[in-house]
Amino acid sequence: MRPESGFCETMTWQILLFHVFILAMNASSCAVDNSRPVIYQLMVRTFGNTNGTCKANGTLAENGCGKFADITPAALDSLNAMGFTHLWLTGVLEQASGTAYPNRPADDPDILKGIAGSPYAIKDYFDVCPDYALDPDSRLDEFKKLLGRCKHHGFKVIIDFVPNHVARSYASDVRPDLSFGADDRHDEFFHRDNHFFYLHSSHPGGGPPLRLPTAGKPGCDGLFAAETSFGRVTGNNAVTWAPSVNDWYETVKLNYGHDFTTGRGTGHLPGPAAPPAEVPKTWRTMDEILAYWQAMGVDGFRVDMAHMIPIEFWRWVVNRCRSRDSKVFFAAEAYDNDPAKLTNGHVLDELLKAGFDAVYDDPSYDVLEGIYESGKWANDLDPLTFTGKRFHKSLRYAENHDEVRLASPMEWGGLGMKVGKPVSAVLFAMGRGPQMLYHGQEVGDPATRDNARTSIFDYGSMPEFIKWVNHGKYDGCLLSDEQKSLRAWYGKLIRTTKARAFTAGEFYGLNHANKYNPAFGRVGDESVSGHWLYAFLRRDTKSGQAFLIVANFHGAETLRGVKIRIPKDARMFLGRTGDARWLFRDQLDSDWSSSVAQADLEETGLALPDLAPCSAMLLEIFPGE
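-> structure tokens emitted (625 positions)
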């Protein structure tokens, strides 16, 4: 007998969804606003894989692999009930892989990272990974059926767009006429209409052949036959015949009509209205790729390392994509501190000006992780709230496929799954931009077998996530009580932050006003406040709805006797200065409420209940009685 309770055997999905609906209706006094993307990132390879073997360097046959078919109506119902609006189907494009199929040979192991291969070493931009199909030869049809299921359940679908590099073995079977590099001139390092950059014998690394850092590994000799007489620049701008193990050696850099070795000046490139015949060849190829997926029904793209591509290309291609679908969604992974960025301005701002809907908020993520790992304070978030338009256009996340797991015993202070609560509450509540949760985060998967990250290069599964999948029922009945509670908490957070104060409202930080308030969560001999406690206001002018958000980041200390001062400027921001009393009611994790005289808020402050370690409150503010 499986260890499932009678509840899980008898409770129907209709009843479960009814209860979720009631919770959502009770979450806030205002109607739900679904205008903001709430993204669930799932990697098909691991999402539905219930094979718990997880052998190191295991094959698909040994470790299993998730399929498009595993993303079932039951799974989609459950994600819909949590409040997600978008699904990011990570890694669906065909990638270089060590797995062979009758009509698709395996790739040379020298150009692979892991047997499964990197989903960011794409082999055919017009195809999907055969690993994910029940019938590999029908993989595109199976993907289209998945798109249909997602749309039927009300989701918009995002896939990866990886513009900077491709697999060394790139060759399109679907559109061979658009294969990168097919007609390139190999004798020039840079040519405007080459797809790639080609090495000269004088470049570092000793000249041809290309020598990869894989020599000595099983089945590897450090050579790749296709780059024996010529070589190409590696994906991370490594101009060398001998890329290192720390380079993106499995990929090749794409050329957008600008020689990156000459600097960041890209003003010579065409403008946003240029006809296709006048733009560099790679621009045209990429536009064909995006148009192909748009025509299939894909609603948007998460763009990998967008800062390494000329801004002029983004202005041009986003404009063309919007001419095909005005609502197409573009979110950029980009980092302003990367020397490889192709602008002298702040690259996140430049990408938004170029038409992106959202950009990664890596700076806030780094501060929050730094509270646990490098001595940062919650106060360090404050400078990041003065970034203009970008603040409310930032895509915020506490996990993604590149980052360590919150619940890892080796990271985030080793606090386990509970650390995700204050971190996610602050990130999801502070701005109007998209929210994103990575599959496994909601059940506290620790990635203990994968060095704190769920591998994107290998076949495997997530042991704790398998308990939610529960033999394809997607009902979570094998989860521990703590995991069930955590998943329910994330659902409540998502649904509560659909209120207009969060989706349309402005931000007002309170840590600065409480820096010298001794009752603002000080621990030990701290002489100023704001190490472990963070508080801010959100208010929507149109509806008048307002919230006070409070988070205790400390992993062990219960913060007692906390009082939050709300100065006059903050009360004016809330637009409630005419109310003699204010009522604060938690809409997230408790039934706590308190009525306070407005006159007491500046000096005495709002007295809070004990704040448990790694906890958060979303206090809706009403006129008091």
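The first helix runs from residue 6 to 10.
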